[in-house]
Amino acid sequence: MKPEAIIRAEQLTFSYTDESGVTPIVLDGVDLEIREGSFVAILGHNGSGKSTFAKHMNAILLPTGGTMWVGGMDTRNDDDLLDIRRTAGMVFQNPDNQIVASVVEEDVAFAPENLGVPPEEIRQRVDEALEMVGMKEFALHAPHLLSGGQKQRVAIAGVIAMRPRCIVMDEPTAMLDPVGRKEVMRTIRDLNRRYGITVILITHHMDEAAQADRLVVMSKGHVIADGTPKEVFQDVEGLRAVGLAVPETVSLLWELRQAGLEVPLDAISDEECAQALAKLLHVS
Ligand code: ADP
Fold first, then answer.
1. C-alpha span between 72 and 6 (Å, rounded)
2. Residues near ligand 1 (Cβ within 6 A)
3. How far away, in angstroms, is 16 Cα from ligand 1 center?
4. Most buried in the list 50, 62, 94, 119, measured by CB within 10 Å?
5. In the chain, where are the structural domains located?
């Protein structure tokens, strides 16, 4: 039997209503299933509906049409709201807005305390969550003195302490410097590969999207591409048409191809691209 998808959007449609009562459609009949244990990146130009979609996975927004299922629960069902939020945790762009306490471990304990988890279990969950994001040694530090990447990892630990099956990250690296971005990306990969947590990463960074197992591209409220990063990034012209670049490696290989050279377009990583070029030059 096919395992139930942890996230399933069925003809998901959504429009915001602004003050003048205008309701442009932001999500337009999105069908998408996300398998438990996978690492999916959602890529798209600004305004394509990525954040709006992410907020449906945590029942922050409810569909105006169609259905969003999270762990088999319909997000419109009020009685399941807590369970839905426990199943799919959410991490946002700005770590400063997500940190609520003045000591790291208290911050991580905040959500499970609110859920009524017994104190001895909270201790265990906090230790485990800080370990998982590589921040255990900072347990007694003041969050506001940490770097952006460290703060974001504390925010992630706060979500992990709720033991979610799935974690939805809405541009978690957007406000970080390159070092912070790398730390957070390493943490995200670990959560998925070592600890089996389903990860949904909203991003507009090609290099981050390339690290996922599956890449979903959105444009104007529609899913316009869905496949492995290698598959999706080969459609250089299709992506450019919706305002997206491709990784620099693919862009270089594509230009070489336009010049008539026989190179593969799916050599996304620096190493793969270097090998493809070495082969072209007959050096190895
Ligand atoms: P993305 O995450 O891909 O940048 P969003 O989901 O944030 O896209 O936005 C999709 C569209 O919805 C945009 O046109 C945006 O202006 C509009 N939008 C987002 N949030 C609101 C809101 N709170 N009220 C009205 N319109 C909104």
1. 7
2. 16, 18, 26, 44, 46-52
3. 8
4. 50
5. 5-228
Supply the residue whose CA is at minimum distance from atom 18 of ligand 1.
16
Span from the CA of 49 to the centroid of ligand 1 (angstroms): 6
CA-CA distance, 161 to 105, in Å (whole number)? 11
At residue 189, the 3 state secondary structure works out as helix
Residues 160-207 have pLDDT tens digits of 999 999 999 999 999 999 999 999 999 999 999 999 999 999 998 888
Using CA atoms, how far apart are residues 156 and 210, in angstroms rounded to an integer?
21
Cross-sheet strand order for the sheet of 166-170: 88-91, 166-170, 198-203, 39-44, 214-219, 222-227
| Prediction pTM value | 0.93
Distance CA 161, CA 178 (A): 26
